[in-house]
Amino acid sequence: MSAMRLVEIGSLEGWREYATAWDDLWQRSAVRVPTVRSEICTHWAERFARGQPVHAWVVAEGDHFLAGLLVGARRIKRIIEVGATLTNEWCTCGDLLLDPAAPAGPVLDLLVAGLAEAPWSLIWLDDVPVATERWQALLQAIERAGLPACCDPTLSVGQVRIAGDWAAYEASWSSNHRRKIRKATKRARQAGALTLERHSRIEPAEVPRLLARGFAIEDHSWKAGAGSSLRRSGQMGFFEDHARLLAAWGQLELVFLLLDGEPIAFEFGYRAKGTYFSPKVGYDERYASLSPGQLLRHELLRELWAEGQTESVDFWGVWTPAVGCWANHRYSMGRLVLAPRRWSSRAWLTAYRLARRATASRRPPLFEDGDAGDPSSDRVAAVAADRG
User: Fold this and answer.
1) Which residues pair with 266 in a beta bridge?
2) What is the DSSP letter of 314?
3) What integer is the mean pLDDT of 57-71?
4) What confidence tens digit (pLDDT) does each residue in 178-196 have?
5) pTM of the model as a whole
6) 36-40, 59-63, 126-130, 362-366 — which is least confidently predicted?
7) Which of 155, 127, 117, 166 is nearest to 307 (CA)?
8) Tens digit of pLDDT for each residue in 369-382?
9) Is residue 62 part of a domain?
10) Lowest mean pLDDT among 27-36, 103-112, 156-165, 278-287
11) HSE-up of 237 (CA within 13 Å, CB side)?
């Protein structure tokens, strides 16, 4: 058996050579979201980190990857450059990959030894599921290495775990939510024929047409007036390329709610390893009285329950009241900031901790009921509006 070794990759070009081994590790790992696969990570870096260094640390045994972490350069407050997860409001590609059959302690000790010599002042990892076993194991390895670090939950994410029968799940909703869905369904069916249209097996060549149809719905939403619709943001090309990759893997799902054949709500989703992810939902505000976003959610969940092939639906964003109506589980996402082995890094981490304390005193905490973060933030407002 080959000895474990740390492989350090200092460029996007170099990282591409390991794409097959990376995807094999993703497939074995507990990470379900497909945006962590190598081609989407590469696509994100080419789009949003042009000209910036990309760095990866991989623990390998022969040609077999046991763990891996990919980061890119990012400047915080235009002052300090850090190694950060590949994440923004359009897509999250950052997570820790770990082979569940590997000895987590020795593997992650070796990975942390690489992070300790990182070329940046800080390692700044946002939008990571800090409560999972793999991230908790990484935190333990960081502690064993004696590296200063700070880890905080930043938001709660809702899930629907699909178990039992539909009637029992429906009965778990609040009486107010059940009443609203009944009334919305009745109003919609009085207005016309209500149909859920799902595209689960999509040829990559069909992606531009379907996306254009879906995101045209945003042109009749609040986003059009705010200039933040996808087509006005300049990111339509990114989503098309992103979606083509997912479609080629059979992991893209585009969902429309139709009223008399007219799309009134749309969801850009993807699925992998038994989980359906819901990163983007939009609805036509001309039909707001029918609650089209919530009706799409209701009809889609009912179909997924009936099919019996999906273990959970992950809302993949900030917890909002609209998400809370459906979710029967939640988990925490957070930020891990780590200081490599240099005195200046320790100083920067101390400054970050002081700034964090000052900021925390001026905003609401993470409540136990899941209303995470500052409810006035753009991200929370955008997700709430998207949910319809």
Assistant:
1) 256, 282
2) E
3) 96
4) 999 999 999 999 999 999 9
5) 0.88
6) 362-366
7) 166
8) 333 332 223 333 33
9) yes
10) 278-287
11) 5
Residues 283 and 186 in one domain: yes
CA distance 342 to 340: 6
Q: Which of 358, 355, 357, 362 is nearest to 376 (CA)?
A: 362
283, 360: one domain: no
Spatial separation of the C-alpha atoms in residues 289 and 257, rounded to whole Å: 15
| Same domain assignment for residues 360 and 287 | no
- DSSP structure class, residue 287: G
Asked if residue 125 is part of any domain, the answer here is: yes
Tokens of 296: 């799409």
Q: What's the domain range around 355?
A: 4-155+331-368
Residues above pLDDT 70, as percent of the chain: 88
> What is the number of domains present in the chain?
2
Domain at 227, CATH number = 3.40.630
DSSP string, 118-181: -SSSEEEEEEE-TTSHHHHHHHHHHHHHT--EEEEEEEEEEEEE--S-HHHHHHTS-HHHHHHH
Rg (CA), the chain: 22
Q: CA–CA separation, 29 vs 151, rounded Å?
A: 22
In a domain, 41, yes or no: yes
For residue 217, how far is the Cα from the chain centroid?
22
- Indicate if 8 and 140 belong to the same structural domain: yes
Phi, psi dihedrals of residue 295, rounded to the nearest 5°: -70, -40
Per the document, the length of the chain is 388
Q: What's the CA gap between 184 and 121, in Å, rounded?
A: 53
Residue 81, φ and ψ in degrees, nearest 5: -90, 130
Query: 172-176, 224-228, 281-285, 323-327: which range is least confident on average?
Result: 224-228
Three-state SS across 47-110? HHCCCCCEEEEEEEECCEEEEEEEEEEEEECCCEEEEECCECCCCECCCCEECCCCCHHHHHHH
User: How far apart are alpha carbons 365 and 363 in whole angstroms?
Assistant: 6
149 CB-near residues (< 8 Å, 6+ apart): 139, 142, 143, 336, 337, 338, 339, 349
Q: Do 180 and 129 share a structural domain?
A: no
Specify the amino acid at residue 347.
A
